[in-house]
From TrEMBL:
Species the sequence originates in: Dothistroma septosporum (strain NZE10 / CBS 128990)
Example GO biological process: protein K11-linked ubiquitination
Anaphase-promoting complex subunit 4 long domain: residues covered: 315-507
TM segment ranges: none
Pfam families in the cross-refs: ANAPC4, ANAPC4_WD40
Keyword terms, alphabetized: Cell cycle, Cell division, Mitosis, Ubl conjugation pathway
SUPFAM superfamilies found in the cross-reference section: WD40 repeat-like
A GO CC term assigned to this protein in UniProt: nuclear periphery
Protein's name according to its UniProt entry: Anaphase-promoting complex subunit 4
Superkingdom of the organism of origin: Eukaryota
Length: 835
């Protein structure tokens, strides 16, 4: 960077960092992470690169899903824990804000279009691009917000408040018999615990907190991350903990984490905790901007119509209901079920992978012996090995196989493969599968209990039978997993004994049978061999392991089907825990290599098959979640549409939402404020629209509030307006913003403005204060900017016109000086950040 770039001929903001990219930025896809000081940009290759502002280092990259897919939306969650990315193929991804790993993937589907039901656990191959006329909707914008329930009601936590209080904490709030007769004080010791909080604490009690955390899933290179997101979701302990954290911080029960995904058609999907679908609603025209506030129940969506007109739609969330203890339990357990299902599916895929990649080694060695015996008048390979173990007598083909095929190197390969098979599958079952089944059982029974309690009412309109059906495959999976543990222990002991015997046979065959060395080796090793383990392994396991029926996909059952075909399939229809117990007893009497037959069911082996049981579990969970979504969607009111009369040539540069002040008597809702650039008059307009919303009209029913927009216009005389952005501060009814202005000589300035200013010279207030000047002689030519950060850490990111470079300037330094001069008036020395 040339040093002359920093020699300003006027005011200058402190320079924090700068960065030059090899590829250009695709505007407007740039988003600032306020909490972590990260900048996400979309480059010309349609990859999302996330940089650390202070150092300019690359934090992580979200790769383009395919060469034909582009980015359509980009937004950070307010706490910067997640990054939302919309793709042009009708999907959207939620990525971890620290590592960039995919947390969730959603899909936008047209009316009447439903995702097919999978009958196997195979990875879904990427769908071909739809033909013309069948184009999927695209994400136009994201709307994140963590709604503060206490702040919404004008309540602040008392000093000494105990979140997630234990039994001992509540016991300390009980008076003894002398003082209060053993009653809990309305406000106990210093206002830390209230009597009214006890029912909520009991309702939201989470039994899983006493359980040890779930372990990572060792995928053993099962699949590439590009093929399936779950491949790396649980690969590290930190990632696994994050997936199961449920977003339950110290005060998580006092907040509602919402996400609104707006399609270009106007259809908007409302989700809680990024994955729990609440329902859908429709806003007018194509959404282009979103705004929300933690202390407001509304999401403001700015839409652009085909005739270039604009409107604001307010999506009001029923926060008192969504934030209630019952909905909190339903939402948290619904998300837990979704995550645990992904965890269990990933375990099943890893077990299948470990089985296929390791059993093939043993099958290859046995198959090579079969090939040597094929043209000879000899019994099969299993019979020859059994005869050798019983008599010690070789035939030429068996001797050739041991001498030329097995030897020391392949014997080690056999040992490594089978040891990995048994060890890995045992670890998946003991450390992953069984603990996950326990947790998902707790979540399902919790929801079933709520459904039973509220059966027949609108408080939780879901049949308990839906959750009982989910427990059947869960119990069957637990039964199969416990049986597999015993089978693995038995077969692994047999294999180790067989391997020791095979090692002796290799030594004998190399020394030539009946030679002195061979006889010496036989006398030395035979006393250490356990033929009660060797013979069953040769006769049974080499012919077919007991694990095969549990792991391998049932023949002829795969692919996708409609819902009716899915539940009509025998592997789904016949799933039942009692039948599984009977089938398991019958399996013990079946010889190795024979099929399990039971006339009561069409495919009894499917009752004990992990892929079939996991598919049944997935299907029943999908039905239950769909029913929960249908019930929750009835809570969403129709969005309020507010038409805007904007002048021709006006461009909306920014938008924010301000909640109503607590204590107002009028029926007033949130205020949506737009920042407009008028090119024809070279002015900046701050347009505020306050509208009554459903959430506030229910609270105030005495009068109808009138929607009266207010406007402040700022004429700009320094030059052309390039960009302008709000500064996220709370100044009562005033709005603070910065503008990027380019003079005729090429000099670019950053101006600070405040709307509705009192006590200042009106002309000076309208003109604004120059904060920074970019000389016309500098190589860096600003064109766009972003404002972000948090309290006492506000910055402005300025992008050059070619989109290859940006600079980060310290905006907080200018605001401190502005406040010192009385820019915000008396009594407002400490400016709060409007998160």
């Amino acid at each position: 960077m040339a040093s002359s770039d920093y020699q300003h001929q006027g005011p200058a903001l402190p320079h924090i960092a700068s960065k030059r990219l090899p590829a250009t930025i695709k505007f407007p896809f740039a988003a600032y992470s306020n909490a972590h000081d990260l900048l996400a940009v979309v480059t010309s290759t349609w990859d999302i690169s996330v940089f650390r502002i202070a150092s300019g280092q690359l934090a992580f990259t979200v790769r383009q899903r395919s060469k034909t897919i582009e980015v359509t939306a980009l937004a950070w969650k307010p706490d910067s824990s997640c990054l939302g990315v919309g793709w042009s193929d009708g999907t959207y991804g939620v990525y971890d804000g620290e590592s960039g790993k995919q947390i969730a993937m959603g899909s936008l589907r047209g009316d009447g279009e439903e995702e097919l039901w999978k009958l196997d656990l195979a990875l879904k191959v990427e769908e071909k691009k739809p033909e013309v006329g069948g184009e999927l909707g695209k994400v136009a914008c994201f709307g994140w917000m963590g709604h503060d329930l206490m702040g919404l009601n004008g309540v602040r936590r008392p000093k000494g408040w105990v979140a997630n209080a234990s039994t001992e904490d509540w016991f300390d709030g009980v008076d003894d018999d002398e003082n209060g007769g053993g009653m809990l004080d309305p406000v106990a010791k210093g206002g830390s615990l209230n009597l009214s909080d006890l029912p909520r604490a009991i309702t939201t009690l989470d039994a899983t907190k006493v359980l040890p955390r779930l372990s990572t899933i060792a995928s053993h290179s099962t699949m590439q991350a590009k093929q399936v997101a779950a491949a790396n979701k649980f690969s590290t302990q930190q990632a696994t903990d994050n997936m199961f954290s449920q977003g339950e911080g110290e005060y998580a029960h006092e907040a509602v984490q919402s996400l609104v995904v707006c399609q270009d058609s106007g259809e908007s999907t409302v989700l809680l905790d990024e994955t729990v679908r609440i329902g859908t609603c429709t806003v007018q025209a194509r959404p282009i901007l979103h705004a929300a506030h933690a202390e407001s129940p509304s999401h403001a969506i700015l839409s652009e119509h085909e005739n270039r007109s604009h409107s604001i739609s307010l999506i009001d969330l029923p926060l008192p209901t969504l934030g209630g203890p019952v909905l909190h339990v339903i939402t948290s357990n619904t998300k837990r079920i979704q995550t645990l299902l992904e965890y269990i599916v990933q375990i099943a895929r890893c077990i299948d992978h470990d089985w296929k990649t390791n059993i093939v080694v043993q099958n290859r060695f046995v198959g090579s012996l079969e090939g040597l015996l094929e043209n000879e008048d000899e019994p099969d390979a299993i019979a020859n090995l059994y005869h050798l173990a019983m008599t010690g007598a070789y035939n030429p083909q068996l001797l050739e196989w041991i001498t030329d095929v097995i030897r020391d190197q392949n014997q080690k390969r056999w040992d490594q493969a089978m040891s990995a098979l048994y060890t890995n599958i045992q670890a998946h079952i003991f450390a992953n599968m069984l603990p996950a089944l326990d947790r998902i059982t707790i979540a399902i029974t919790t929801l079933r209990g709520l459904a039973t309690l509220h059966e027949g009412s609108s408080k939780f309109d879901c049949e308990p039978e839906l959750f009982s059906k989910i427990l059947a495959p869960i119990d069957s999976l637990r039964l199969v997993a416990q049986h597999m543990q015993l089978a693995i222990q038995s077969e692994y002991r047999q294999f180790k004994a067989f391997l020791r015997w095979l090692k002796m046979q290799v030594e004998i065959s190399v020394a030539e049978p009946l030679s002195a060395s061979a006889l010496e080796a036989e006398d030395r090793e035979v006393p250490n061999l356990d033929f009660s383990l060797i013979l069953p392994y040769i006769q049974n396991v080499l012919r077919g392991s007991k694990l095969k029926i549990h792991i391998e996909q049932r023949p002829g059952v795969q692919g996708e089907a409609s819902q009716e075909e899915f539940f009509a399939s025998p592997i789904i229809r016949d799933v039942d825990y009692e039948k599984a117990k009977v089938a398991l007893k019958k399996l013990e009497d079946v010889d190795s290599g024979e099929e399990l037959v039971w006339k009561v069911v069409e495919d009894p082996a499917a009752l004990l098959n992990i892929p079939a049981l996991v598919c049944a579990l997935s299907g029943h969970i999908r039905v239950a979640l769909k029913k929960i979504t249908e019930w929750q969607s009835r809570m969403l009111p129709k969005p309020i549409a507010i038409p805007l009369q904007l002048e021709s040539g006006a461009t909306v540069s920014d938008m924010k939402l301000q909640p109503p002040s607590h204590g107002r008597e009028e029926a007033e809702g949130s205020t949506t404020t737009l920042l407009l650039i008028h090119d024809n008059t070279n002015t900046i307009e701050v347009l505020s629209v306050t509208s009554e919303s459903y959430a506030f009209s229910k609270r105030h029913s005495t009068q109808q509030f009138q929607n009266l927009p207010t406007s402040f216009v700022f004429p700009i005389s320094l030059g052309e307006i390039l960009d302008c952005k709000f500064i996220p501060t709370i100044l009562g009814t005033r709005s603070l913003f910065v503008a990027l202005i380019r003079a005729d000589d090429g000099q670019v300035s950053i101006l600070l403005h405040c709307s509705n200013v009192t006590g200042e010279d009106p002309a000076q207030a309208l003109e604004g204060q120059i904060l920074h000047v970019f000389p016309s002689t500098a190589q860096f030519r600003p064109m766009r900017m972003l404002v972000g950060g948090r309290r006492k850490r506000l910055v402005v990111v300025v992008f050059e016109n070619k989109g290859r470079e940006w600079r980060v300037l310290d905006l907080e330094a200018a605001l401190r000086e502005w406040r010192r001069r009385g820019g915000v008036g008396e009594g407002t020395e400490s400016m709060e950040i409007d998160a």
